[in-house]
Write a structure and sequence with these properties.
The chain has 72 residues and is mostly helical. The chain has one domain. It contains 4 helices and no strands. α2 packs across α4. The longest helix has 26 residues.
Length: 72
């Protein structure tokens, strides 16, 4: 069993699986996340995945802006 399959199986929620996929893929692109998860046997709701990915994208934007402000 691959390390990803083991980790996905250990997660308690689909939301946690989406967050795991975001970290593994370093992407918030919803179709990519859903495809990757499906390829690892984890079916998630597209709407839920999109909301989680958008929240993470916003968090990353906020972090980048904070870094840019700190160096300017």
């Amino acid at each position: 069993m691959s390390v990803h399959l083991e980790r996905l199986a250990a997660l308690k929620t689909k939301a946690a699986a989406v967050r795991y996929a975001i970290e593994v893929l370093d992407s918030t692109h919803t179709p990519m996340l859903i495809d990757w998860l499906a390829g690892h046997g984890c079916k998630v709701n597209r709407g839920q995945a999109h909301k989680i990915a958008e929240a993470e994208a916003e968090r990353r934007r906020t972090q980048r802006l904070a870094v840019l402000k700190s160096i300017s």
